[in-house]
Amino acid sequence: MVQDAFILKGRTIAITRPLDQAEEACKMIEERGGKPYPIPTIEIKGPSDLSLTKNFIDDLMKGDINYVIFMSVNGVRYLFSAAESLGLRDKLVDYLAKTVIIAVGPRTAQELKNHQIHVDFIPEKYSSEGIIQSLKRLDISGKSVCIPRTKEATPTLKESLRKMGAKVREVYVYESLLPTDSNIKERFFQDLICGKIHAIIFSSSLSVKNLFQMLMEKISMEKLRDIMNNRLTIVAIGPVTAKTLFKMGVKVDVIPDDHLFKEALIALARYWNSK
Fold first, then answer.
1. Facing residues of 35 across strands?
2. Is residue 260 very low, low, confident or very high in pLDDT (cuts 50, 70, 90)?
3. Distances 263 to 12, 37, 243 between C-alpha atoms, Å
4. Topology annotation, domain 48-176
5. pLDDT by residue (tens digit) across 195-243?
6. DSSP classification of residue 179
């Protein structure tokens, strides 16, 4: 009976992650009896200008940074890639050892460990809200906090930490671009309007905005909302992503308590099984 709750009943589930990060998610869906449908809404690219990374490492060296928050595996990978290009990888490892390192989620923590970086703590909730709750227990007023991430990220975390008195700086170590492959967009659009897709899992606010932008080349906002609200099950990994969907006029059927893809699948299966 317990295991039945985790079976996805042969339904097709769209994954909005970048294509090179969707493989693990596809396997999870297949293991639970579902059919994965990758629809990359984000294309990841390293920055052409490495000066922000250089300045960040310089400030680490001076001891001017108290906390470093890693929001994703991409933040770790692209920071180290940039440091490697600058010939500063070993120095980055040494200097990070002198700061408090926060990792959002076990995958991000493992990626840091792969680079020999200690992780001081992982918030209970793997989200901006989880970080804010964790840091409320500490006195971060006047402390310097750096966040290596994409410049397309929502400002929620930065603004909240500044309200707590922290000096916050985002270090843009990669770009999250709109995919340009028109064939992928066309295929997804046709399958969507034909009813071949049963659910979409959104991993971020940017994935929501980009998917709308991609599809509105083919369909009106009103018709797209109608399809999502009446013919699909919508899953948001985290309240910030859910809020973005609400702003777009889309209902959210499932938000997992833990903001992980695996938990989203479990919550989705339970939602369907309750119907």
1. 12
2. confident
3. 17, 18, 19
4. Rossmann fold (3.40.50)
5. 999 999 999 999 999 999 999 989 999 999 999 999 999 999 988 899 9
6. P
